[in-house]
Design brief:
Layout: H1 2-25, E1 40-50, E2 53-61, E3 72-73, E4 76-78, H2 86-98, E5 106-110, E6 114-115, E7 121-128, E8 142-149, E9 159-165, E10 171-181, E11 186-191, H3 192-206, H4 221-243
Helix pairs in contact: 1-3
Pfam families: NUDIX
Keywords: Hydrolase, Magnesium, Manganese, Metal-binding, Peroxisome, RNA-binding
Cofactor: Mg(2+); Mn(2+)
Length: 244
């Protein structure tokens, strides 16, 4: 019985992953936006299957960090000269921050990038990690590691939205989730670019309408996500020109 139960769990885990892979590959942008003249960064969106559901692994930035201490984010950081591409950057940073070995990540795709507060072009790299992965947080960078069911980013219990104006004057809505983690007995606040990437990932894979407003055309997710990004980039570019 034990063996058949295990093989059933394995089979269902594989089918969950396979469905996600197929959905994600339709959204793979590859290096389409890599040529844009902005400093580059990348984050890893690590997916894992637990108890028959997809979960996302997130980290909490160390309180010692100068920038955004104590904020929830994905493993990641700025590109370095040694990185071939954004995938390299995301994997290198994940290894440095939480001890995730690059060969233990099944990289699926790169999604439409975002632009952070420092005007870095941030590329989200999606990959599967084993459900048995035990994070070893680097205390200089990471104070906590936790997982959230992917479904939480379309059907949250605690959600609000903040109007947000980028430095370039582009007005957008910022998602803000509060997740009660019973394993850690802590509530985590997930917002900003991290929440933006998590919502987009959940919309792609789950194909469900969220319980809150999003600024995508859900019937044309590929084109509307790329259009949104190009509008954001254009507003930044206009700002740069007007500052010259």
């Amino acid at each position: 019985l034990g063996v058949s139960r295990r093989s059933f769990v394995f089979a269902s885990r594989e089918s969950i992953k396979q469905r996600a892979r197929l959905r994600l590959r339709e959204f793979d942008v590859g290096g389409k936006f890599s040529h844009l003249p902005l400093p580059r960064a990348a984050v890893l969106l690590p997916l894992t299957v637990r108890a028959g559901r997809l979960h996302l692994l997130l980290t909490v930035r160390s309180m010692q960090l100068r920038r955004s201490p104590g904020e929830v984010c994905f493993p990641g950081g700025k590109s370095e000269a040694i990185d071939k591409d954004e995938i390299d950057t995301a994997l290198r940073e994940a290894k440095e921050e939480v001890g995730l070995q690059p060969e233990k990540v099944e990289v699926i795709c790169r999604l439409v990038p975002g632009i952070d507060k420092m005007n870095h072009l941030v590329t989200p790299v999606v990959g599967f990690i084993e459900d048995t992965f035990q994070a070893i947080p680097n205390p200089d960078e990471v104070s906590d590691v936790f997982v959230v069911p992917l479904e939480y980013f379309v059907k949250p219990l605690h959600y609000n939205t903040l109007p947000y104006k980028t430095k370039s004057g582009y007005l957008t809505m910022m998602h803000c989730f509060t997740y009660e983690d019973h394993e850690h007995n802590t509530s985590f606040r997930i917002w900003g670019l991290t929440a933006h990437f998590a919502v987009f990932l959940a919309l792609i894979i789950l194909g469900k309408r969220p319980t809150f407003e999003v600024d995508y055309d859900l019937d044309n997710l590929v084109s509307s996500s790329e259009n949104n990004f190009m509008n954001l980039y254009a507003s930044l570019y206009e700002k740069k020109k007007s500052n010259l």
